[in-house]
Design brief:
Blueprint: H1 8-32, E1 36-44, E2 52-61, E3 68-71, H2 73-89, E4 93-99, E5 105-113, E6 116-119, H3 122-133, E7 140-142
Helix pairs in contact: 1-2
C-alpha cells in the first residue's frame, strides 16, 4: 500500500507537539545560558539535502529567576523551527557562543539525540570546531555543555 497523503490540518496536528517541544528546548537553553551576549546556532543536516541553519543573538542580564532576556523574537523562532526539523530527522547540532560580562568568550555544543539535546564535552566541541573552522582561536574557551531541561 502506498504512502498516505495528509491534509494540511492533519500535518499541522502531527507537527504541533514536535514544534512545541523544539520551542521549549530552545527557550530552556536560552534561559540557562547565563549572563552575557550569546549567539545560538542550530544546524540540521538532512540526508541528501543541503544543511539548514538558523541563528539568533540574545543578551541575558542577571541570573536565575531575576534574569532578563533581550533578543529578536523572529530570529529565536527561526532557531526553534530548525530545531523542530532536527527533531523530525533526528540529526543536527546546536552551538552556543557566549561573551560574558567580563569579556570571556566561550563555546558550548549539543547534538540532537532522538528528540533531546545531548551535551558535548569541551574536547568534543574543540574537535568539531577545529575540523570545521581550522586552527583554534586562543581567545575562545571551549566548555562542556550543560544539560538542557526540556
Amino acid at each position: 500500500m502506498g504512502a498516505k497523503n495528509l491534509s494540511s490540518s492533519q500535518a499541522r496536528e502531527r507537527l504541533a507537539p514536535v514544534t512545541a517541544h523544539a520551542v521549549a528546548t530552545i527557550t530552556d537553553l536560552m534561559q540557562t545560558a547565563g549572563p552575557g551576549r550569546h549567539v545560538i546556532t542550530t544546524v540540521v543536516r538532512p540526508r541528501n539535502a543541503e544543511p539548514v541553519t538558523a541563528y539568533a543573538w540574545f543578551d541575558v542580564f542577571g541570573e536565575g529567576t531575576d534574569a532578563l532576556w533581550s533578543g529578536v523574537y523572529a530570529d529565536a523562532a527561526a532557531v526553534a523551527e530548525v530545531m523542530a526539523l532536527a527533531f523530525i530527522v533526528a540529526t543536527g547540532s546546536v552551538v552556543l557562543g557566549t561573551t560574558s560580562p567580563t569579556g570571556e568568550e566561550t563555546v558550548r555544543g549539543w547534538v540532537v539525540d532522538g528528540q533531546t539535546l545531548r551535551p558535548l564535552t569541551a574536547e568534543q566541541v574543540r574537535h568539531a570546531f577545529h575540523e570545521t573552522l581550522g586552527p583554534e582561536t586562543p581567545s575562545v574557551t571551549y566548555r562542556t555543555a550543560f544539560p538542557v531541561p526540556a
